[in-house]
Amino acid sequence: MKQAHISFDDVFMSLRFLTRNAPSSVFDMKFFGFLKRMHEEHDAVFSLYAFYTDGEFTLDMIPRKYGLEFQQAADWLKFGFHAAVHKHNALSLGVDDFNAALERFIGAVSGRISVKSACNSVRLHNWAATAEQVSVMQSHNIRTLFCRDNKGISYDLTPEESAIVSTNGCIAKNNMRYRRTDIRYDNNPDIDAALAPLIEAGAPGIVLFGHEKYFISNLDRIEKSIRLLFRNGYTFSAE
């Protein structure tokens, strides 16, 4: 089975807007409404990697009245930990503080979004984490880390291990799976050309991502990629 994983990093603005402006439905918002339409038309599945706080707003402030909508969408709309604080990566925290931050995030998702909405595959801000922090994530049932879409070291991997991920697409280390991110939507001039070699090669898994703040400028690319993947027999997964 050929699968595609689509995610958005730095998710925060939409959840803050939801809280401050209280639309009648989550899906009245352009961001969430578009994702729902893509799911309805192509069975697309999305993972949203979110910050817990910007120092003022926190995920615990999301009104509970949207919980039923999120719960009903939980099979195709997932939320994962990206960082504790907006624009701060995990290396700014010791292992105990990182564990506490992850627990706060999971508690907020369970309590304010849906207990079914947390995903077990994540991409951390700046692809940064120590080996001890990776172990903490495993203790919270996180089983996959998405790595860089460019050359460089991700998380606790060695340069050699990172090179294997870049070349082969995946590596397992201490019961954690590390997967290559294949395509970035942001500023991508030709999404068809980016996808073509992977589709033509019959890649069993393709990982695409963008950032929430570029959603509007990426919208056409995202829709085009979903249609192309769907036409070529790919299903969508949050894992």
Q: Helices and strands: which structural class?
A: alpha/beta
Number of domains: 1
The average pLDDT value, as a whole number, equals 96
Low-confidence stretches: none
CATH homologous superfamily descriptor: Glycoside hydrolase/deacetylase
Number of helices: 8
What is the string of SSEs from the N terminus onward? EHHEHEHEHEHEEEHEHE
- End-to-end gap: 13 Å
Tell me about the biggest sheet? 6 strands, parallel
- Cα-atom radius of gyration: 17 Å
E-strand count: 10
Short description:
With 239 residues, the chain is α/β, with parallel strands linked by helices. Helix content is 39%, strand content 21%.
Describe the protein's architecture and organization:
The structure is a single chain. With 239 residues, the protein is of the alpha/beta class. It has a single domain, classed as TIM Barrel (Alpha-Beta Barrel). It contains eight helices and ten strands. The protein has helices spanning 13-21, 30-42, 67-72, 95-113, 131-139, 159-168, 191-200, 215-231, and strands at 3-11, 46-53, 77-85, 121-122, 144-146, 170-173, 176-179, 183-184, 205-211, 235-236. The strands form two sheets. Strands 1, 2, 3, 8, 9 and 10 form a six-stranded parallel sheet that branches. Strands 4-5-7-6 form a four-stranded mixed sheet, with helices on one face. Helix 4 packs parallel to helix 5 (131-139) and helix 7 runs parallel beside helix 8. The radius of gyration is 17 Å and the shape is globular.
Supply database-style keywords:
239 residues; alpha/beta; TIM Barrel; four-stranded mixed β-sheet; 10 strands
